[in-house]
Amino acid sequence: MTGAPADVVFPAPDTQLVEWNSATPEQRVRLTLLDRAVDRVLAIQRPLVLAHLRRVGARNPHMSPALLARSLERRYLAAVTAGGSGVGAAAAVPGIGTVAALGIASAETVGFLEATALYAHSLAELHGVALRDPDRARILVLTLLLGDEGLSLLRQITQQASGGTSRSSFWGELVSSSMPRQLVGPLVGQLKDLFIRKAARAGGASVISKVMPYGIGAVLGGSGNYVMARRVVARSRTAFGPAPHALPDELALLRAETAAKPTLRERSGARKEDRIARKAVRGQQQAVRSNKKAEQQALRAEPRD
Description:
mainly alpha, 13 helices, elongated
């Protein structure tokens, strides 16, 4: 592949997978749509991730990083068990009207991918790994989804580039700035190609559910989503290790800014107090007008000399 160092050899694709040249027109359409959908769903913008972390920590400004990580896990599991976090990213792909038009997965499956991407990005930020590069973000999420196969490819390439075993036991750090930029493009291409080829081979309306290496089956129900998400959570722990003792500087600053702003309950209480105060003022004004009116009536009722 172009752009990779000469001494790094990328593995050849599995010959049993669907090749573009031998694919039918219908398979080619599905491959193209899936490629675009994966790009859009997995490349969540960093401001959205920071906003998500702000919301999660807003209820308890003193939450430790470990508790924040647990809260991220619970929200992720709840989102995918309920059927996913929405289909906005896939539906927004240019040229694709609705999730049904994609012909790749149900809305729940796309929601699962969205929720997984948001969870992975948020956890990376919590560990101080700022994924500003969309390609590095895709490497992280695709490796979590592909499991051992994706991790094996990631380690093989990075070890070749470094000339030996990685210094870090937590592979999540490999996708940060420590990975040479010239490896990022080819590696994300390999991971995405592996994911899409497997999806194309699986076929059907539940394409992505069939490709997941978790033994769930063809249909993603709530329980299937939960089991798959638990696998992602387990892999994320091996990717990043234990939660840090303190928040990264940027998240700590974000928490301080959030704490300085009134909460929704405080704003609601302030509005209620304001309404009560305005009502009291109107009552006083009405009382003054009533007293004046009574005085005028009393004056008119007095007998004249």
